[in-house]
Design a protein that fits this description.
about 220 residues, alpha+beta, 434 Repressor (Amino-terminal Domain), Umud Fragment, subunit A, 2 domains, ten-stranded mixed beta sheet, 6 helices, 10 strands, elongated
Length: about 220
């Protein structure tokens, strides 16, 4: 395919992501697309910029998750109405701590009523390390790319490849306390330089476990309480 077609597709793809409420461009969209479609971040970046097209076999999954037709993706004429009279449907990513990824679709009005921002992801909790904040079976709602670490709070981290929820506190000595609310589980303190904040600056090697800051937790869905 020529450059013009790839660029046209990327523009239509980004517009479809906007309509579906996926994280805005520059605010975690690359990560959100990678998570939603189970691809690498470099591949997601290429889809978004027109450097490469998705494989043909991926189009049905793209159309289903974004609620668009192939014609809309190719031509950019977004004329279909989705949601059966209840408003546009928004695709919401659902992740498991073990790394499995799926998606669900909700009426946009429902998310607006709950005051949830575009691109919010539901992370299903499988342990009681953050009890009582969240317990096994609950969901933590977080926004990929939001990393206001200096303010502290509850965040989603990837520690050695596993997503976890932890309370973070930045200290005056340039360390970061990674806290389990459930005191039966140990907390730890690591240098700030050991954290991959996702801003393109790699964490210092050899200084603690591989820790990546994924996003800020903005809410909870308490399933069994």
């Amino acid at each position: 395919m020529g450059d013009s077609f790839r660029l046209a597709f990327s523009a239509n793809f980004n517009r479809a992501l906007d309509r579906a409420g996926i994280a805005p461009s520059g605010q975690g969209r690359v990560s959100a697309v990678a998570n939603l479609f189970g691809i690498s971040k470099p591949a997601a970046q290429k889809w978004l910029t027109g450097a490469a097209l998705p494989e043909l076999a991926r189009f049905p999954d793209i159309m289903e998750k974004l609620g668009v037709t192939s014609d809309e993706l190719v031509t950019g004429r977004f004329v279909s109405t989705h949601g059966g009279g209840v408003g546009d449907l928004v695709t919401v990513g659902i992740e498991l701590e073990e790394g499995e990824i799926s998606a669900a679709r909700f009426p946009s009005r429902a998310l607006e009523a709950a005051r949830l921002p575009p691109g919010v992801v539901f992370l299903r909790i499988s342990s009681n390390e953050m009890e009582p904040f969240v317990c096994a079976g609950d969901f933590a709602l977080y926004v990929p790319g939001r990393r206001e670490l200096e303010k502290g709070g509850v965040f989603v981290l990837s520690i050695e490849g596993k997503r976890v929820v932890r309370r973070l506190q930045q200290t005056l000595s340039q360390t970061l306390r990674i806290i389990c609310d459930n005191h039966r589980f140990p907390s730890e303190e690591v240098p700030l330089s050991a954290i991959d904040s996702g801003d393109g600056t790699p964490a210092a090697s050899g200084r603690g476990p591989g820790i990546r800051l994924e996003g800020l937790v903005i809410g909870r869905l308490l399933v069994y309480r």
